[in-house]
From TrEMBL:
Keywords: ATP-binding, Kinase, Nucleotide biosynthesis, Nucleotide-binding, Transferase. GO terms for cellular component: cytosol. It holds the Pfam family Thymidylate_kin. Its EC number is 2.7.4.9. This is Thymidylate kinase. It is an enzyme of class 2 (transferase).
């Protein structure tokens, strides 16, 4: 008898260059091999509107921090309403490359707009939807910068001190709710990182393990 698989919402967080895209792909392959329907998405950019906002916020004209925070929140509200919640309602596993914690770390901590204020904005935008598991891929700023390639975006161009503030923001969030977070050393080889992610995720899959 087939047991109905519950939906799951997983967020991959961490600085630019920490390997989120690679881990999202590996996680999708692992889940699909176990018969799960997977929706792989990202913020910003998981919808048509999100792709427009991503281009403007990362590569457009200079933005003040509050405008930047509001654009990310607008993208998140639309993303959750049109993509994430419908996928969860179908019983899918949603894996997102960035979610609320990125705003808390980048705009709340890095831009110093206030972590609680930015978290409250995103919680309002999403109707309070939180991931079942948030994986923080932890990597120091210098190593992350060395991994990045191509023309840097507005956030990637920020100095090392900014990126260390962002890193501390992610780690503080994880320390406050250890039951809902997994902090993984992103300096390890990708397959080792993947095994650590799977080890933390497996208990949430129930009969699908």
């Amino acid at each position: 008898m087939t047991t109905h698989a519950p939906p799951l919402f997983i967020a991959l967080e961490g600085g630019d260059g920490s390997g989120k895209s690679t881990q999202a792909r590996l996680l999708r392959e692992w889940l699909e091999a176990r018969g799960r329907a997977v929706v792989l998405t990202r913020e910003p950019g998981g919808t048509d509107l999100g792709r427009t906002l991503r281009r403007e916020v990362l590569h457009g004209e200079d933005l003040d921090p509050r405008t930047e925070a509001l654009l990310y929140a607008a993208d998140r509200a639309h993303h959750v309403h049109t993509l994430v919640r419908p996928a969860l309602a179908r019983g899918a596993v949603v894996v997102t490359d960035r979610y609320i914690d990125s705003s808390v770390a980048y705009q709340g901590a890095g831009r110093r707009l206030g972590r609680e204020e930015i978290r409250g904005l995103s919680m309002w935008a999403t109707g309070g939807l939180l991931p079942d598991l948030t994986v923080v891929l932890d990597l120091d700023a210098a190593t992350a910068a060395a991994r990045r390639s191509g023309e840097p975006d507005r956030l990637e161009r920020e100095p090392s001190a900014f990126h260390e503030e962002v890193r501390a923001g992610f780690l503080d969030l994880a320390a406050a709710e250890p039951g809902r977070y997994a902090v993984v050393d992103a300096s390890l080889p990708p397959q080792d990182v993947h095994r650590a992610v799977v080890a933390r995720l497996s208990p949430l899959l129930g009969a699908d393990r």
